[in-house]
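User: Could you check the structure of this?
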Amino acid sequence: MTDLDTSPVEALPKRSVFGRLYHGETRVDFMGRKWWGIGVSAALILVTIVSLLTQGLNLGLDFKGGVQWEVPSAQLTEAQARDVLTANGINAADAKIVTVSASGVARLRIQSAEQTAEVRQKVISDLAKAAKVDAKEISSNSVTSSWGSEITKKAVRALVVFVILVALFISWRFEWAMALSAIAAMLHDVLISVGIYSILQLEVTPATVIAFLTILGFSLYDTIVVFDKVDENTARFASARLPYDDVINVSMNQVLMRSLNTSLAAILPVLSLLVVGAGLLGAISLREFALALFVGLITGSYSSIFIASPLLAGLKGRTPKYRSLRAPRAVGVDLERLVLGGLPAARRESQRIRATAKGGEASAASAVNQPAHVVLTHPPRPRKKQRR
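Assistant: Sure, the predicted structure tokens are below.
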């Protein structure tokens, strides 16, 4: 086929749904469903904001500061651990006590506010007696709130620098509208991921922050895959004067399989970290990192289709080049023709009408069957006869 072929779709080989998906021959009207995606995102963002304002984030010890003890829990209950804290002048009601598993051994993780070295050592001694273990089997960790504040500042600084560099690169490689859309999609992914942690009250640790920053990279990659195809098709269909919604629809259908493969290839290893590493082997640190990645990978794949692309279509549709194009959006067979490199039926009919006005029905039929790049160009002028 030529760059813009007008051969009917019916002449192409018939494939199953998975066959069309694999070969990039789908005809999903993404732009026709954009309000569903934007509506879902708006609802999630609203729930996120409400959750952050009402219950906030469950910050880990590294951010809010305090003391943490881990004790083998075979002979120790949560109630006994709270009694030990109360006996040492610590507010047991504000303490956080959870059971964790490491290498198949159950342990109680006890977290409280900052304490003096003498109190920390006395708690270790009392916990050892209550659990009937040696004091050396109890681990203790103390972090000041100022250290957690410094981590937060560095994370925010890294996020700002990353966003600026991304905006500059995409504006240079593509255009400002794509840069703005990609950044909005990235911030959407991070906000939704933070919202899930707030709603479920999952603990936020430094590993979680690292995972959030990693999400930005994946979200950007998936969006750039779509935008690169959009940029290619914008030049390809320039002579056909298609509405920008059609260019977006064609591009997303052509890279749909690639986006799905990329997302699955990234999600499966992360899922194995959650199931095998955190679930079966009890590696808690892996769970903190993998859970944020898992949520971010899903939202990143979703936002590249339902957030970044509709935003780009809205920004570009208001430019003078596309504002005057009022043709209806191609759907169904017409969209499939565009995905396969051809022109929709309405465009083919307009070619027939122009050709009829110039040279009759025979030339019209010939024009419709010709490649579009031939029909859309002006025929060469006849040479003038030279005088002798």
